[in-house]
Prior knowledge:
By secondary structure, this protein is of the alpha/beta class. Helix content is 32%, strand content 16%.
Amino acid sequence: MHVAFVHTPIPLREVKNRGDYWHSFDTRYIAAHPQVRPMRKILWELPHWVPWLAGVLAEAGFDSLEALDFYGDCAVVDGIDEAKITERLRSHPADVYLFSPMTVNLPQALRMAEIVKELHPRAVTVFGGVVATPLYEEVARDRSVDYVVRDRGEYALPELLLALRDKTDLSGIRNLAFERPGGELAVGRLNPYMPVERIPFPKVDIFPEDTGLDLRYIRQNYALGCPFTCDFCTIQTIGRKPEYFTPERVISEVAAYRARFGEHHHVYFGDETFTANTQRTLDICSALEKAGNITYDCQTRLNCLRDARLPAALYDSGCRWLEIGLESSNPDTQHEFKQHTKLDPLEETLARLRDAGLPTCSYLIVGLPNEKPDDMRRTVDWAASLIDRGLLHASYLSLFVPYPGTPMFSHPERYGMKLLHRRYDLYNEELAPVVDTRYARSDEVYDIFVDGVGVLAEAMARKPALTFDRAEQVSPHRAYGEFWRTG
């Protein structure tokens, strides 16, 4: 049985002011990362699910596996390059095609599955991941989809493929959803999660070595899951209780990825909250410092940076970029959606991180349903002020999206929202919001976002708080002119 993992492209979108924004952002980012090299094509990172599940299947005895990357060169403005995709799928026949799209490219993944069925009628298509899990009924009933693996797939995926190979009964497979011939939807109960110590080592060689020329960094995980329950976040679809890999496992995975794709690559930790557990953080920092040759980025929350030991531990272990989910300057938003996070210690915390040599970058969201237009503008101005005062190094700005799998998507009325449509390719953090709230229409929020992008671009173009001995490089975003990938 030959199994192909499909990495789906995301349509390119035009966003006013993003050109200047990304130029300013990347000037600061690249200065903090001396090892970053220009990408051959814009893949950014390996789709982590591919080597992860390829390792699971390899351990289960499947030895004919291939990764098909369409992300890096098959996106076009407002769509995908169907001619190129069709030709590549025609020349790569498989028995099973695996898809794990995000919300924003679910329609494109379904169209690609349809092309698979046209070219290879006997092939099986399987969907899973962050959007297929909450929308499993809708996805499983799509004519191009044979099976949906809900939630995590370490148990269910090999069981499904073994049953297909051996032509045995599927009814007892947990996590599986599929439409029976008569139209009835079969839905298996969910498995408990596989303990992290039993998860097989990723199959790093599923991608060719020269893929390293397309990467900006190596994505890595220390923990799976997040203890927080932000209503706008989809992390709850894969678990709320963090489980940690051993530091030794983390270091060995990083070493394997860098040995194949380039020792120069730094690491991006994909953990939602890298510093959620202080002792665990200190443990991994100690291991990274001992390794001595790894630099990395990570993300966390303001209320998970309280311990005075963390700034030095992070810097000494190789952290060179720390992203903090601030979301809003509005205390009511922090109380309602961020588990009562208090902003009072923000400036002191940012100053300690800066003084430790750590560039900090905030995540901001405009359009949250409890906020009025003036609240959103104040958040942007607040972040620009923090940049100007040397407390923040950079900031992202996104539009609120009620993603499937969140309470805000399932019950928008509880938040005073009206869901405008379910065109998932428009569920994009850089396009007009898909909701009207009690305080603002979609078009009003989008205008605030576009203006905010310009405000942050100007703030980041001024002298940064931290300077580095590094000449400016061409921003990799420039490869798209005025069009940017979003996720």
